[in-house]
Structures
1.
Amino acid sequence: MQREEFSFKAKNCCAFLLTADDVSGRGEVMRAVMSAGSDPPVLQGLWEYVREEHEVLLLSPYLPVCFAFLTHVLLCAPFLALDALAGVCQRVQLWRISAGSGPPPSVKQWWDCFWRVLYRYLSTVLPATALFQALRSPALPELAPTCWRLFVEVVACFLLFDTLFFLWHLVMHRVPWLYRHIHQLHHQHRIPFALAAQDASSAELLSLLLLALSSAWLVGCHPLSEAFFHLVNSWLAVEDHCGYDLPWALHRLLPCMGGAPFHQAHHIFHSGNYAPYFTHWDHLFGTYRASGQKSRPN
């Protein structure tokens, strides 16, 4: 009885919104919900606000590049603080994967790396990705995704991106010309740090961003799902290169993920552990390298 009363009130509310908000376009959204006989998604309010207030920004071909660069820099900030603390705090030093490899990167190394990445984004990645987005012509649906759909789409994006990255990374290491001209620059950091996750050649930066955008496009993601995927993807890339085996890192909760120790072993040996996040492809292809060099000196 209570459920029927709630459903009746919800439909009355929807009917009110139909008359009050037809001018803004929200009426069409509620009409679609009522005709489907279901309640609005939990994320509908958030999506309507973003779509109505920032539609021009969402459709901008420059959004993916700006989002990628800014989130990368902001997510690196906590690790800059950790690198500063590592020189004075014993506990932070113990979290470093290569404890005997010398001091953490200096502020100058961070600063130089920042300008290298920014230059490559502005000179190559920005115009090329803008062209890709213009050809892609993304649309803004009226309805938000359900929480379940958002979860499924984000997981599907990560599995697809992990596969594509593994194959491309493996090819770059196995083909000498590709390694020398595209990937070798990224391996200048034998012991990487957070910002160095994107310290790579312009061609490699562009290829990885296009892989991420293509993964979301192939999955058919809702824009909210795609934004969440890119945000978490940036965080995991930063964490993989941070140089710390943190107690709260995601790979400690999910054994299917390799985390920073897994990827740092790749930088130390220059082979193996080609997947960015998960370990199943390296196990299947026989390229898995144990990440037990936690206290191994340079």
2.
Amino acid sequence: MLETQVVKKRPAPPKARSKKRRQDDESGSRKRRKPTAYEEDEEYLDLDAGVNKKIALVDNLLLADHLAKKIRRFGTELKPVELSQLDISPNYITDTTSFQEIRTLENLPNFLEKFADPKKLGEAPKQNGSPHTLIVTGAGLRAADLVRSVRKYQTKNNTIAKLFAKHIKLEESVQFLEKHRTGIAVGTPVRLSDLVDKSALKLDKLERLVVDASHIDQKKRGVMDMKETMLPLARWLARHEFKERYADPEKGLQLLFY
């Protein structure tokens, strides 16, 4: 009986990969998704301190560009001419990068005293409701914290004004300004604008606008990171009373981002 001879076939050699495919495979593991602008800024966000440290590092040119981008991001319903009217020139913004301390509530007085006469911060113009310094922030609770941080400047003739909607009616703020001398006022954009429109908050003696720009909440959002706060802020900063004075050599108005 003949033994059946079994011929085993050799397995076919694997197909050679093209050079392009080999390069793609080799580089594939090294490819990374390009981080978004938000993710690139993560390293600057200090949640423990509640501060976006990047604000302290950018000069007036970069800040003006940052504002313009935020305005266009949130102002999609606005016409081009309306968007341009909200833009702030770099020449309007005071460069504050020389202030090296972390921008917390505790260091706000030091910041103010670096860019203003410390003695005058404790004084108030004789006309009621006519502050020399306005600090603007995004929410009432934050405004209350800011008021406490500058309480050291309050005297018998210089009351720190709380100008925000949280538990304070508009008419109450009007009456307060009519009856009190105030050197420093803290408020939110919409309430401040309403008080100016009612002629209760007077801007004749105003020397500086301070934007609470570095503060972030637990969701890592600051006043310029939300549509509901950024657009009112932009409209406030772009009021014609301010734009006429930002670069005026005689009646200059400081625009400071803290």
